[in-house]
Amino acid sequence: MRAIGRGIGTSGAALALLGALSACGGGNFRPVSDMPVRIGKPYTVRGTTYVPADQPGYDLVGYASWYGSESGNRTANGERFRPGWITAAHTSLPLPAYVEVTALDTGRTILVRINDRGPFSRGRIIDLSRGAAEELGIRGQGHAAVRVRAVDPSEKDRKKLRKGKPAEGRPRVGADELAVLRARLVASGNDAGR
What residues pair up with 100 in beta bridges, in sequence order? Predict the structure, then answer.
């Protein structure tokens, strides 16, 4: 489970540890489902407050990183984290949500299911699972400039992603649009967030 907040008292830490150990024991994971969609309450990590919200027009450029060593842990929406699946963590989109992620160096685009919270690093706008990073072609880089855009995919694509499989291939973004997206990245100031 990703740590959210600091300053838990000794008894709170013990309860959190017991909860984590019981989760690792193979039970109490939420089934992989799109319902109910959870927005969640505002939360604070390292002095920054995040406010989850439904954001149907979400379209942002910044940096993606990836994670995968948390295999078997519980995601923020209660599912078991599977590093090979095409999932991601986002600080404020609903859980689950679907986004299209485009690598700004190659134009390669994939569909990803968000089921966790993070990343909590400056300039990072999404934290991809290892499987999603591989699918996007950025695993070897560790991080990459991306566009993240909220989408409403077909039920066929949703079903594939709920089973951990990649959705249907998406067309690469052309050179002209990539140039516009890269200019947006520079203008946003997120280009320093590597």
Answer: 111, 149
**What pLDDT was estimated at residue 9?**
38
> What does the domain layout of the chain look like in residue ranges?
10-192
Write phi, then psi, for 158 (nearest 5 degrees).
-60, -45
Average pLDDT, the chain: 85
- The tokens describing 133, both together, are 């990073």
- What is the rounded CA–CA span in Å between residue 99 and residue 139? 18
CATH superfamily to which 10-192 belongs: RlpA-like domain (2.40.40.10)
pLDDT band for position 68 (cuts 50, 70, 90): confident
Given this model, what pLDDT does residue 2 score?
41
